[in-house]
What does this fold into?
Amino acid sequence: MTTPKLILDHVYDHEAAQPGQVFLTQPVGAGQVIDYSWGRTLDEARRMAAHLRSLGLAPGARVAMLTKNCAHFFMAELAIWMAGGTTVAIFPTETADNVRYVLEHSGASLLFVGKLDTWAQQASAVPAGLPCIALPLAPPTDFETWDAIIARTEPLGGRPARAADDLAMLLYTSGSTGQPKGVMQSFGSISRAADGMVADIRAHEGGDRPTRSLSYLPLAHAFERAWVEAVSLIDGSGRIYFAESIATFVDDLKRARPTHFISVPRLWSKFQLGVLAKMPARKLDRLLAIPLLGRFVGRKVLAGLGLGAVVRAGSGSAPIPADLIAWYRRLGLNLLEGYGMTEDFAYSHASTAASNAPGWVGLPYAGVEVRIEADGEILIKSPGQLVGYYKQPELDAECFTADGFFRTGDLGERRGDGLLKVTGRKKELFKTSKGKYVAPAPIENQLNAHPRVEMSLVSGVGQAQPFAVVLLDEALRPQLGDAALRQQIDTELRQLLAEVNAALAPHEQLQLLVVAAEPWSIENGMLTPTLKLKRGRIEAALAPQIQAWYAAQGPVLWAEALR
It folds into this structure.
């Protein structure tokens, strides 16, 4: 029986078969890019791997990377693997406290520092004496540079191998409910999951046609690591482009012209708002309804977003409003939902053109088993399943069933055709003073469907009825000094509250809708690096104001007016 290839085996094959094929395209400013072929990518990685070996690092040594997405993230990871190490990628937006925690908890032996926006605040988190190497595009430091090292170092030869059960990476979760956890993934688990992803892409995107991707969601997160990096390393036919900055994002998209593009609901909503800011919704709807012309208009809108070549579009990380999916489909983009976790290397469920429904995250991928417990919890057994939690064996005991299924902590249901719906998180359920449980996520999804609302949080522990806090779209916030606009928004929110409550059970109906006084962001600790709500942090910040909100008159309140 032939032993299945692991991810490094595929990489060496691509290096030998297509050394001149462009693999990575890195913007370097002023509209300029550097293309890295498979040959150059592996040459630089091999030179750094030889340097890492010369340092005498222990087998399996954890080597950390703190950098935004860039070509040298891929090269550094390959170098670490070839040198016998385990990678620990840290979210580039993390606070100094979390950077320090991950470096200390993982026992990192070395740190690669790359392209960053907040290095001045993060630098203090690096322990004195920890060896550091500056990647190209890194902020100014005193560290030895990648370029200097590879210029003087001969490349590591041969095909350095890793065993299937060797640890490939520690993936620290984004910490929406507390301290990040280190998810251990082996070379076997990431290779088998990525094999399934490549097979799925080929089945749904036209056989062996080369793919193009824009890497912009954090590579420290399992989704981007799996569906962009690991897939490209195994497939070998695709090309990865990187984004330069938020300001150039649309231009970066247009450069890449991705064939598949997967994002989070917040970005899909921002794209829509950007389109509607240039063309009123009624006019666009009218044009899209005209035969032939509507298809032309839809293609033009998608091309303007850089999405004109997309064969497959997906949304994950959080529920996406059904109306938003329908809007993209009217443009001609078949936006589909999917579901995955760090703990299964993002290999769990996805919708297809033939099997999908708004609000349902799809069917299990090949090799994935799923069942729903009596209490509604989703259990998954995936080829990408984690080895366990680093230094936390007590969590392993809690999270696995006796027959090897992972307890996701998500609640859900399945249709007769196998489609899965995620209805909330077990730990997010809260009880009102009436003794009734409320799941916030489905209610938030209804609120988030409104074009004025960017994000929302539903809470109300111990209250007679729940309340919601909404964060208005960022484009509106600077205009709220206009009394007429503010009154218009107030009226719209009252209508939204009435419509949402009409669809809820009596114990779920919202007593209050409060407009947040300040935005929630990664920087102020209210959002994770993957833009999920940090519920505990937000609720703690709101706690001193809640009783005043319930005592105030009116179903819609503006938090800043009650301070």
Q: What stands out?
A: The longest helix spans residues 483-502. DSSP finds 17 helices and 27 strands in the chain.
